[in-house]
Amino acid sequence: MFLENINKENDIKQISREDYGKLAEEIREFLVDKISVCGGHLASNLGVVELTMALHLSLDLPNDKIVWDVGHQSYTHKILTGRKEEFNKLRTYGGMSGFPKRRESDCDCFDTGHSSTSISAALGIVTGYELSGNEGTVVAVIGDGALTGGMALEALNNASALKRNFIIVLNDNNMSISENVGGLSSYLSEVRAGETYNDIKAGVVKSLNNIPVVGEKLITQIKKTKSSIKQLVVPGMFFENMGITYLGPVDGHNINQMVRIFNEAKTLDHACIIHVLTKKGKGYKLAEKYPSRFHGISPFDKKTGKLLTPKTGMSYTDVFSSKIIELAKENNNIVAISAAMPDGTGLKKFSREFPEKFFDVGIAEEHAVTFAAGLAVAGYHPVVALYSSFLQRAYDQVLHDVCIQDLPVVFAIDRAGLVGGDGETHQGIFDISYLRTIPNMSICAPKNKWELEDLLSFASIYNGPIAIRYPRENAWEGLEDYREPVRYGKAEEIYREKDIMFFAEGNMVKTAVKVREVLKEKGYKVSLVNARFIKPFDQEIIFKYSKDHKVIVTFEDNVLNGGFGEGVGRFIGENDIDMEVVNIGVQNKYVEHGSLSQIKIEAGIDETSIVNRLLGRLEDIKF
Question: What is the band of 179 on the pLDDT scale with cuts at 50, 70, 90?
């Protein structure tokens, strides 16, 4: 077992060259074993085993730095830096993160979780090294999907002016989570298919050297005109034209070949990009065949690939998926937009049903939003489906391009609230706060599966920007008898009593129902109102309930700062309404990874925590 000898960074250098392949096999077996038990990102990690090994063989960590774009492909890196024993608690509460974390190891130099950030971050580290005189090598590893992000292209433009060594590894597996789209993807396909410039160059030089007398003169003359030759040989010369040396493509599963090219790249005094071809899911046939399914996966049976806990019921994403198709059949102006996540956002079925009205713009959330604004100006009713944590990347576009013009764009915000194992970078606990600040933006959230359908119907004919936020969980089927027609800015009365008013948004209605039951058992009288609209919230119903309620409790699965409860509290204070306000929401801190039940406790929005907090507040109030 060669893996037993890997207990800290640089231990891999003690492995003999002829044993690299065996170590790679052991790492793959280890990854499949561990991820089948605890879940995590499998296909992407299986694809970069040899690439990661080659980097560790070529670099001296931790002084040399590797910045992993997105970071979900860093599992082999964690193994090679002495963390293999921590994989038993991968993505569990208090355990190891599925992404690079500086607090875990000095070899994790930058926390990542969103795509297209690595080149910018690594360029900053390179510049810092240059200022301090540190001669360490800095490498950014970015996928071909992430390279479509505008930030990556901005960083490439900046890197071209660098007068110091900087290595960008383009991990090209022809996929992000779903298949890549766009012109850059097509360009890379051409490069993959063609004979590489570097192979041609080596062959030409070797042949000319064999020519007596004139050979060396010809080589010198060719070097003078190499740019012209490259323009003919390499399609587009995209990177070279930016001033970044292009090397490759190189076989991403040939360790010795990669080590050689990495060592060559370290000698350059400017930025270079090494184009590495890898196979997502390599070494595990099911992941090779179904890379999207095994991108991020729950615990599964290794032999069959089937989930150990099969999915039951409809998720909110499933409800959205079916309803948006139904609405598009009724309204020809509805179009749908995804940013490289048609599967995750539920738009895959829509893309098959309406291929001409579906647009996957790649990993480019900012572009997705402004593109939607243009479609709206052209008379269409775009639906932009994004995860909550990814929409925050397009905040300026929402504000500047959609809301200033008051355009009818629907934002279907998936993964709103707490999401679990992906941790801080993926928790959807900020969208209420960052969207509430924007004039013309309306925000709503469904209490159950049927209300999501009703809100989508409303949004499809609403003539302005509107966001519908819903969680990752299965769609709740409670309160099925409460389905009042949706009216703009109006809440829905569920239970009317007196003394205490629960004012809950979206997924927190379910929690409020359970908390209410506990309080009623203790003798309290509690009303429950489903907010439906977070912005604008129903002000009239607050005035109405203030006549016989002394306390209003807001419920939200968003941070308290800038959230729904803060808005309600401010309204009550400004209007001198005689009600004590209690805001239930996520405490103002980043929430770690873990099971949903565990991180709800950490965030303070589990039923027990809420009940205990309310009982402490209510015992001093005379009703």
Answer: low
Q: How many CA atoms lie within 13 A of 324 on its CB side?
A: 31
Q: 488: which 2 tokens?
A: 């703009």
pLDDT digits (tens, 9 = 90+) for 565-579: 999 999 999 999 999
Residue 47 is which amino acid? G
280 among known catalytic residues: yes
The answer to whether the beta carbons of residues 318 and 345 sit under 8 Å apart is no
How far apart are the C-alpha atoms of 405 and 377, rounded to whole Å?
Answer: 9
Q: How many CB atoms lie within 10 A of CB 31?
A: 23
Peptide bond connecting 439 to the previous residue in cis, omega within 30 degrees of 0? no
Q: How far is Cα of residue 178 from the mean position of the Cα atoms in its chain?
A: 13
**Does 204 score more than 90 pLDDT?**
no
Alpha carbon 387 to its chain's center:
7
Alpha carbon separation from 479 to 137, 451, 482, 493, 512 (Å, rounded): 59, 10, 6, 12, 12
Are the beta carbons of 39 and 274 closer than 8 angstroms? no
Q: How far apart are CA 385 and CA 409, in angstroms?
A: 11
Note whether 479 and 494 are within 8 A (CB): yes
Annotated catalytic residue, options 393, 436, 447, 532: 393
393 catalytic per annotation: yes
Is 90 exceeded by the pLDDT of residue 14? yes
Chain length of the chain: 623
Non-local (6+) Cβ contacts of 563 within 8 A are 432, 433, 436, 556, 583, 585
- Provide the pairing of β-strand 65-68 with 138-143: parallel
Helices (H), 81-214: 118-132, 150-159, 183-193, 197-209
Q: What is the C-alpha separation between 27 and 466, in angstroms, rounded? A: 47
Q: Which two tokens stand for residue 11?
A: 């231990």
User: Measured between alpha carbons, how far is residue 71 from residues 146, 413, 442, 589 in Å?
Assistant: 11, 23, 34, 22
Contacts of 159 (CB under 8 A, 6+ apart): 119, 123, 166, 168, 244, 271
The candidate with the shortest Cα–Cα distance to 315, out of 335, 295, 298, 334, is 298
In the set 101, 280, 323, 348, the catalytic residue is 280
Helical (H) or strand (E) element with 44: helix 43-47
Closest alpha carbon to 44 in 152, 146, 173, 145: 173
Candidates 243, 273, 244; CA nearest to 261 is 273
Annotated catalytic residue, options 26, 50, 365, 492: 365
Q: Mean of the pLDDT values across residues 310-334?
A: 95
Q: Are residues 146 and 118 in contact, defined by beta-carbon separation less than 8 angstroms?
A: yes
DSSP annotation string for 228-280: HHHHHHSSTTHHHHTT-EEEEEEETT-HHHHHHHHHHHTT-SSEEEEEEE--T
Cis previous bond, 536, omega within 30: yes
Q: For the purposes of burial, counting CB atoms within 10 Å of the CB of 221, is it exposed (0-12), middle (13-18) or buried (19 or more)?
A: exposed
Phi and psi (nearest 5°) for 312?
-125, 145
Report the share of the chain in percent with pLDDT over 70. Answer: 90
The span from the first CA to the last CA of the chain, in angstroms, equals 70
